[in-house]
Specification:
The protein is mostly helical. The chain has twelve helices and no strands. The chain has two domains: 101 residues, Serine Threonine Protein Phosphatase 5, Tetratricopeptide repeat (Alpha Horseshoe), CATH 1.25.40; 123 residues, Tetratricopeptide repeat domain (Serine Threonine Protein Phosphatase 5, Tetratricopeptide repeat, Alpha Horseshoe). α1 crosses α2, α3 crosses α4 and α8 runs antiparallel to α9. The C terminus is likely disordered.
């Protein structure tokens, strides 16, 4: 992963780290990027990917094109920042609009797609978001393939894949629209520890009869009980 940033070489080698930091704190995007590179490689400071991501993000928000590309790369693989292919794609797009050649397609062709095919659940989830059209990747949408990736990731207890399956069933993306199945997936995600699924489960419940909810709950417990790390019996409200 670090090799992807080899083009971001220190340009202020004659300045001390404290001088660079001072300029970065004053708001210089150039020096914020420079400080991020220092933390990324451990040049004159202890290597710290979290601090690197923090300073890249500050510079990216000011329009620094190298930082936009870099924070996209870090978001794509979860280096120093939470993994999020949607955020990564957004930052890559910002850099590309300025004419910068990002690692978007290198990431996709050389790592993401092969990893998804090899069974990596995080890569499968990211591929699903891309194929659903949730990102700025300019690629032909394939909701059915996306659902297949989501199902594979859900089998490996990927909470966000479970949740996104609920959304797919609620919207009819790659599957027939089915509120009962949507409720079931939100229930499985919630019962597996994803709190944000609660609101979605309750929203869908308004469109279902008590009997259909009980049937969906029974199916969830039958198929996915081993995934539910939270005591499933505590969820009694619809």
């Amino acid at each position: 992963m670090i090799r992807q940033f080899e083009n971001l070489q220190s340009s202020d080698g004659y300045l001390s780290v404290e001088q660079i930091r001072a300029a970065a704190v004053r708001g210089s995007a150039h020096h914020q990027c420079e400080l991020a590179v220092r933390y990324l490689y451990g040049r004159g400071v202890e290597q710290d990917h979290s601090k690197s991501a923090e300073w890249f993000l500050k510079a990216a928000q000011q329009g620094d094109v190298q930082s936009q590309s870099a924070i996209g790369d870090m978001s794509a693989k979860g280096v120093g920042i939470q993994r999020n292919v949607i955020e990564a794609s957004t930052w890559w797009s910002q850099a590309e609009k300025q004419g910068y050649q990002t690692f978007r397609w290198s990431h996709y062709d050389r790592w993401l797609l092969p990893s998804a095919e090899d069974g990596d659940p995080d890569a499968q989830f990211d591929m699903a978001l891309i194929l659903m059209g949730d990102t700025t990747f300019k690629i032909t949408r394939d909701p059915q393939k996306a659902v297949a990736y989501l199902m594979a990731a859900a089998e490996r207890q990927h909470l966000f894949a479970m949740h996104r399956l609920g959304i797919a069933y609620e919207r009819g993306q790659g599957v027939d629209r089915d509120d009962a199945s949507a409720w079931m997936w939100f229930y499985v995600a919630e019962s597996s520890g994803l709190e944000q699924a609660t609101v979605d489960r309750r929203r869908v419940a308004y469109r279902l009869s008590p009997q259909r909810i009980e049937d969906a709950k029974r199916e969830a417990r039958g198929r996915w009980a081993s995934h539910m790390i939270v005591q499933i019996l505590v969820i009694t409200d619809f």
